[in-house]
């Protein structure tokens, strides 16, 4: 069952360079229990897409110029602020990147967890507290009945991220959006957090949309992957397919730049150049100035996302040749 | 799943320190160890005690005239001497402290309430910001004393009017400070996280933004207390405060001014009381600022 469907989303931002499209005509969907990974560099539009789904874009400067966001059969873009508040929490939960600053320093973690319950459910303080303790235990915090009265500064980064996950999950959301949930953490803690998310997915049958620039995280977590570049989706495929047979030159570049244990290379491959400024996009394909497979036709038109194989789409005019090679 | 690193590191620490300490409690403890805060607290405590225990300190009526005891210099009979009508200076100065502190307290409370309200609304609901802050700027464009003189002159001489005049002058300044910290705090990730958890505007303001914006306000209010006391004395001195013979420090100094050469204690003693009060409050404010300033806190 499809739980989230984003159709032709275009998000514009007002800047000193005029209005720019941070997300340009992006469509994707997500089924119940599925983990969708969205990868791309900083500024590729992945976080903006997530914030648009949550209705958390700062307006102004942001504006949704076009598109639909369907969540369980309702177009969230038509929702009022009040309706959105009912969705946030029990419908869609969100985990942010910075565990160090995502908890309010003046309240105990129990206060903050219980508050989230209180916003959405009419239950007494005892039930709220029990629920908070249960959730802390569920995300792997030892001695939750004592930890619940701690202030955020008494916890380590990994524990705070667990608390954040507990806060996002305490109302049993059907969809969890995790925006770079492990970027600020040590690798060992990263691993634990990712495993935790997968366990919780299995337990609560929720869908997860995980946003990251880390291909390793994607390989571990995602069922399906979307690769974004300069506000557009350039490739979309199931995770094994993407890693085994990447088509788009940008995806290939990303995969080539991951160090590998099996392969002793002195230098890692890199993609030359940088992401174009959104107010100075190149003509045609946005990746063409950096692309090793560039031909003159690349600058002529923006290539559409077309099917390569079943469930595998890519946006490159030379993809038939690339698949053959 | 075991959280090896985090749990191992923190459990023994908790055993030694079983009580969770809030940031506010921590700040209070550090404040009481801060040198200039201690000095300020000590001086302010003296003034406050004088005001609160005024009837115990002296049995004299601050307004009782005694023509035979005029211009008595400070001595054993009259600790602070007497003025041109033979009134006890000690009584007048301690009852004056009462009035000064009452006015200061009232202005601080009114500012804390309305300045916070105005600042929070402007900082949080950005579409109202422009209108509110332009009105604010217009009031702030007048020098504080000049505006206070104007408002006091229009309203007439009385204690409530004095409090009102001082509040009108200082609320815009307080609102600015609250607004700027609200603008910073509303961008914090925990505010976003609260929005993402479905919290409404009121809850976010009350629970997440205001408690975290209080530090600069607290510092401002301690300075504001000093300004209010000083401005009140200035207005009284200029004849715009409470009607004489009400013993405000400004009134006492205004009357004593003509006898400055012959009886300098009449003007010097309330002047010293005023200076001590203002200094005490400034020291308190400095201490608060040192402890509560987030930039200093990060270094620790």
Characterise this structure.
- The complex is a heterodimer of chains A (325) and B (300).
- By secondary structure, chain A is α/β, with parallel strands linked by helices.
- Chain A contains 11 helices and 12 strands.
- Chain A has helices at residues 46-54, 81-87, 109-120, 125-138, 144-147, 157-169, 187-204, 215-221, 239-244, 249-256, 319-324; strands at 2-15, 18-31, 35-39, 62-71, 74-75, 92-95, 175-179, 207-212, 224-229, 232-238, 306-309, 312-314.
- Chain A has an 8-stranded mixed beta sheet with strand order 6-7-8-3-9-10-12-11, sandwiched between helices. In chain A, strands 2-1-4-5 form a 4-stranded antiparallel beta sheet.
- In chain A, strand 4 (62-71) and strand 5 (74-75) form a beta hairpin.
- In chain A, helix 4 (125-138) packs across helix 6 (157-169).
- Chain B is mainly alpha-helical and 300 residues long.
- Chain B has one domain (47-54, 80-299): MetI-like fold (Orthogonal Bundle), CATH 1.10.3720.
- In chain B, helix 3 crosses helix 5 (89-124), helix 8 (159-185) runs antiparallel to helix 10 and helix 10 runs parallel beside helix 11.
- Chain B is elongated, with a radius of gyration of 24 Å.
- The model of chain B is unreliable at 1-18 (pLDDT under 50).
- The chains are: A alpha/beta (325), B mainly alpha (300).
What's this entry about, in short?
The complex is a heterodimer of chains A (325) and B (300). Chain A is 32% helix and 25% strand.
Strand-residue proportion of chain A: 15-25%
Rg of chain B, alpha carbons:
24 Å
Q: Largest interface, and how many residues on either side?
A: A-B, 51 and 32 residues
| Quaternary organisation of the protein chains | heterodimer
Stretches of chain B where pLDDT falls below 50 for ≥5 residues? 1-18
CATH superfamily of chain B: MetI-like
CATH class of chain B: Mainly Alpha
Kindly report how far apart the N and C termini of chain B lie.
Answer: 33 Å
Described by the principal axes of the CA atoms, the overall outline of chain A is: globular
Q: How many DSSP helices of chain A?
A: 11
Average pLDDT confidence of chain A is 87
* Gross CATH architecture of chain B: Orthogonal Bundle
User: What is the N-to-C order of secondary-structure elements of chain B (H for helix, E for strand)?
Assistant: HHHHHHHHHHHHH
Query: What is the overall pLDDT average of chain B?
Result: 84
| Biggest β-sheet strands, sense, barrel of chain B | none
Largest sheet of chain A: 8 strands, mixed
Radius of gyration of chain A: 21 Å
Give the structural class of chain B.
Answer: mainly alpha
Give the neighbour order of strands across the main sheet of chain A: 6-7-8-3-9-10-12-11
């Amino acid at each position: 069952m499809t739980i989230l469907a984003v159709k032709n989303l275009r998000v514009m931002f007002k800047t000193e360079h005029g209005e720019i499209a941070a997300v340009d005509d992006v469509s994707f969907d997500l089924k119940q229990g599925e983990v969708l990974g969205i990868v791309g560099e900083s500024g590729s539009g992945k976080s903006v897409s997530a914030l648009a789904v949550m209705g958390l874009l700062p307006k102004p400067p942001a504006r949704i110029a076009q598109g639909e966001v369907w969540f369980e059969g309702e177009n969230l873009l038509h929702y009022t602020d009040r309706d959105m508040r009912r969705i946030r929490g029990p419908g869609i939960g969100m985990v942010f990147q910075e565990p160090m600053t995502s908890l309010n320093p003046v309240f105990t973690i129990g206060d903050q967890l219980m508050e989230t319950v209180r916003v959405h459910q009419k239950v007494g303080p005892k039930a709220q507290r029990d629920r908070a303790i249960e959730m802390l235990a569920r995300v792997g915090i030892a001695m939750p009945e004592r930890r619940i009265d701690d202030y955020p500064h008494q916890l380590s980064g990994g524990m705070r991220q667990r608390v954040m996950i507990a806060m996002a999950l305490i109302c049993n959301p059907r969809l969890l959006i995790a925006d770079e949930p492990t970027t600020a953490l040590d690798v060992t803690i990263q691993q634990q957090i990712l495993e935790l998310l997968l366990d919780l997915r299995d337990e609560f049958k929720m869908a997860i949309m995980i946003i990251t620039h880390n291909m390793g995280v994607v390989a571990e977590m995602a069922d399906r992957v979307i690769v974004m570049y300069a506000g557009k989706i350039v490739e979309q495929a199931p995770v094994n397919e993407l890693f085994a047979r990447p088509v788009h030159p940008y995806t290939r570049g990303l995969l080539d730049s991951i160090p590998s244990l099996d392969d002793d290379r002195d230098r890692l491959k890199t993609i030359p150049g940088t992401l174009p400024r959104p107010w100075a996009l190149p003509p045609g394909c946005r990746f063409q100035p950096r692309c090793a497979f560039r031909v003159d036709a690349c600058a002529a038109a923006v290539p559409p996302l077309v099917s390569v194989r079943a469930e595998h789409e890519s946006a490159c005019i030379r993809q038939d040749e690339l698949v053959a090679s | 799943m075991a959280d090896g690193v985090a749990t191992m590191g923190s459990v023994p620490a908790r055993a030694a320190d079983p009580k969770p300490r809030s940031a506010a409690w921590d700040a209070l403890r550090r404040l009481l160890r801060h040198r200039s805060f201690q000095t300020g607290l000590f001086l302010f405590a003296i003034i406050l005690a004088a005001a609160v225990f005024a009837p115990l300190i002296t049995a004299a009526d601050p307004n009782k005239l005694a023509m035979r005891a005029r211009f008595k210099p400070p001595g054993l009979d009259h600790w602070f001497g007497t003025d041109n009508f033979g009134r006890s200076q000690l009584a007048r100065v301690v009852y004056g402290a009462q009035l000064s502190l009452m006015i200061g307290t009232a202005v601080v409370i009114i500012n804390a309430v309305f300045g916070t309200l105005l600042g929070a609304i402007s900082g949080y609901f950005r579409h109202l910001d422009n209108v509110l802050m332009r009105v604010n700027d217009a009031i702030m464009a007048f020098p504080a004393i000049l505006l206070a003189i104007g408002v006091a002159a229009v309203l007439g001489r009385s204690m409530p009017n004095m409090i009102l005049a001082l509040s009108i002058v200082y609320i815009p300044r307080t609102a600015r400070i609250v607004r700027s910290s609200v603008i910073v705090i509303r961008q914090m990730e925990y505010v976003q996280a609260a929005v993402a958890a479905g919290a409404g505007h009121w809850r976010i303001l009350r629970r997440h933004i205001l408690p975290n914006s209080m530090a600069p306000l607290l510092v401002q209010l301690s300075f504001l207390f000093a300004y209010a006391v000083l401005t009140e004395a200035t207005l009284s001195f200029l004849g715009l405060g409470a009607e004489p013979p009400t013993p405000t420090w400004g009134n006492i100094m205004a009357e004593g001014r003509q006898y400055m050469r012959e009886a300098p204690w009449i003007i010097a003693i309330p002047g010293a009381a005023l200076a001590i009060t203002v200094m005490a409050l400034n020291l308190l404010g400095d201490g608060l600022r040192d402890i509560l300033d987030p930039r200093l806190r990060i270094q620790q």
